[in-house]
Design a protein that fits this description.
alpha/beta; Rossmann fold; 2 domains; five-stranded parallel sheet; 10 helices; 8 strands
């Protein structure tokens, strides 16, 4: 059966004079899966899911591509800008928490799968991911002492050897579990001088390992977010010595990620709203919670 988009569905309804005859709620049911049990299950996944805008439940829309973002706080920052750039073109989801290091990747995705998808959840999601955009690295190269960032006294979470081993396992897991899904790996964004728990330059080393792993899988698209983000961090760093970005930096990253995803599945992104527009949505949503 030919796959039609939401926009095409509405055009068809309009062409036959049906759109004006159908109640808005009914049109919504035609276009979405409508899943109360899914929303309840989603909210059970983590403490942020009911209160933070990026982690809110996203209703699947029938006939739109389904995109899954896996990453740490950098991806949390750009998630809404990816969604805004692909509005009406794709349903964009993210992992239900901070993705942390490569050590947690498979268990986190398994938790999401068994919590949200059929047959594990009766009446749950029954779609396949069209794209998985994933990254791990910043939490692998950090040093912890008493669970706090400390590169002087701490121990690194993952050595380069462990990181490589984990990445190979992650790729095999994704290919075995989602054989028809397009995979996009994002390189780890840079660590600036003065970061309290990470060594400047380590992102280069970890990315070199990651690229070596990905080179064995030419079908995996590489999004070089590291190189893209060098000037972005210089201009829009949250503060000196911080790996995080101000809102405009996250917006620029989100547009870049959306472009990579759109190209992979042949859709067209729209103009991303300003940070003021997105921030207003954050405040409106989180004020009500």
């Amino acid at each position: 059966m030919t796959r039609i988009s939401r926009r095409q569905s509405l055009k068809m309804l309009s062409a036959f004079g049906l759109a004006s005859l159908l109640p808005t709620r009914l049109v919504s049911q035609v276009l979405t899966t409508g899943c109360d049990v899914c929303k309840k299950a989603w909210n059970s996944l983590g403490r942020f899911n009911k209160t933070r805008y990026q982690f809110r439940y996203i209703e699947p829309v029938a006939n739109l591509p389904k995109v899954f973002i896996y990453g740490d706080s950098i991806s949390i920052g750009y998630t809404e800008y990816v969604r805004a750039s692909l509005k009406g073109q794709a349903c964009v989801y993210r992992i239900h928490k901070n993705g942390q290091s490569s050590n947690e990747f498979i268990s986190n995705v398994e938790t999401l799968k068994t919590t949200m998808f059929q047959p594990y959840l009766k009446g749950g999601w029954n779609f396949d991911w069209d794209v998985i955009h994933f990254n791990v690295g910043l939490h692998d190269l950090k040093y912890l002492h008493n669970k706090k960032l400390n590169k002087k006294k701490g121990t690194q979470v993952s050595t380069l050897d462990l990181y490589e081993k984990n990445l190979r396992a992650i790729v095999q897991y994704l290919k075995n579990t989602y054989p028809n899904t397009k995979l996009i790996f994002a390189t780890t964004t840079l660590v600036p001088e003065g970061e309290p728990g990470r060594v400047a330059g380590d992102a280069v080393k970890y990315n070199a390992v990651a690229l070596k792993v990905m080179s064995a899988y030419p079908e995996i698209i590489v999004n070089d977010l590291y190189t893209f983000s060098i000037p972005v961090l210089k201009e829009f760093a949250n503060k000196p010595g911080d790996v995080h970005y101000k809102a405009e930096g996250s917006r620029l990253q989100g547009i870049e990620v959306a472009n990579k995803i759109a190209k992979a599945i042949d859709i067209t992104p729209i103009e991303c709203p300003s940070t003021d527009v997105i921030t207003a949505k954050f405040k409106e949503y989180e004020t009500k919670k």
